[in-house]
Write a structure and sequence with these properties.
Blueprint: E1 2-11, E2 14-24, E3 29-34, H1 40-47, E4 55-60, E5 63-64, E6 73-76, H2 88-98, H3 103-116, H4 132-144, E7 150-154, H5 162-177, E8 181-185, H6 189-195, E9 198-203, E10 206-212, H7 213-218, E11 223-230, H8 233-237, E12 242-248, E13 251-256, H9 262-270, E14 273-282, H10 285-293
Length: 299
């Protein structure tokens, strides 16, 4: 288990992380979210022992994270950090050796993952010759080749087409099923909703939202209602609780202030002609994130 307990980090007088606490169990994917400058990168660096907390404690399986423990951590950075003049094999031998792997083990694992990602022919190609998507595959392999107990994924789908996103998703879920502790960070909230049962949102270093995705969504009473029926925008706008009416193709989206209004709106729609859809939807994580973080995304 990864435990981050009451961690604060100062850079001189600037407080980058403010009394942060969370736990991630084996076989769990935890979402650590925040706008640019929220403190995510500082937190990742403290978890990997690249930075020392000003106060607080970080442990992996009850051990303080030091250079012995960091061999059990894999990190896919948002910024690409590949050595472009090396071949894929040379690069992986270098990274694997840093994680205390033996050369024959590195090559064996590399061949397995190259085959899995359908890029076996790139083993002896230089990194600079690869496409953006294939570089991302190599960076991902470098983060998991040593079978880490803790894997940090920061924007893992950057530069990938939908087919390769699905390939990554399959691998991430397999690692989860094998007990890997995974921290997942992305600005694509649909990806977070896909993976993370538990999450935490940082803003200016402070925790502003924490809990399971289900519990977080249940805190908000607003709802969207998606409708297909013979009804006008003007008629819907007059209904109690309706904040806005948006026409999206052949579908109408109602934004309502409280779920208590759903019953009466349903009664009204049920009397309309050609009703083929009435769907009540909770606020998306994207909408919750935007509301809570607002425009404070740069510092």
């Amino acid at each position: 288990m990864l435990k981050v307990k009451n961690v604060t980090k100062f850079y001189d007088d600037f407080k980058a992380v403010d009394n942060l606490s969370f736990e991630v169990k084996e076989g769990e994917i935890f979402g650590l979210l925040g706008a640019n400058g929220a403190g995510k990168t500082t937190t990742f660096r403290m978890i990997m022992n690249l930075l020392d907390p000003t106060s607080g404690e970080i442990t992996l399986n009850d051990k303080k994270i030091d250079y012995d423990v960091t061999d059990d951590i894999g990190f896919l950075t948002e910024e690409r950090s590949l050595l472009l003049k090396l071949t894929v094999k040379e690069l992986m031998i270098y990274y694997g050796t840093l994680k205390s792997m033996k050369k024959d083990e590195i090559i064996s694992e590399l061949k397995k993952w190259l085959k899995r990602f359908k890029i076996e022919e790139y083993e002896n190609k230089k990194i600079k010759e690869l496409s953006k998507g294939n570089k991302q595959k190599i960076q991902f392999i470098s983060s998991i080749i040593h079978k880490p107990k803790l894997l940090i994924l920061d924007e893992p789908f950057s530069g990938l087409d939908p087919i390769n996103v699905d390939m990554f998703i399959d691998v991430i879920n397999e690692l989860k099923d094998k007990g890997t502790i995974i921290i997942f960070s992305s600005h694509q909230m649909n990806h977070v909703e896909l993976f993370c049962e538990k999450l935490l949102i940082l803003d200016h270093g402070k925790t502003i939202i924490e809990g399971t995705l289900k519990d977080i969504k249940s805190r908000y009473d607003e709802r969207k209602i998606l409708i297909k029926a013979d009804v006008t925008k003007a008629e819907l706008s007059k209904l109690e609780g309706v904040k806005s009416v948006v026409i999206k193709g052949d579908e109408i989206e109602l934004n309502i202030s409280n779920k208590k209004h759903v019953k009466d709106i349903f009664k009204f729609i049920s009397k309309c002609k050609n009703v083929t859809k009435f769907e009540v939807v909770e606020l998306s994580l994207h909408e919750i994130f935007t509301r809570e973080v607002g425009g404070n995304n740069e510092r």
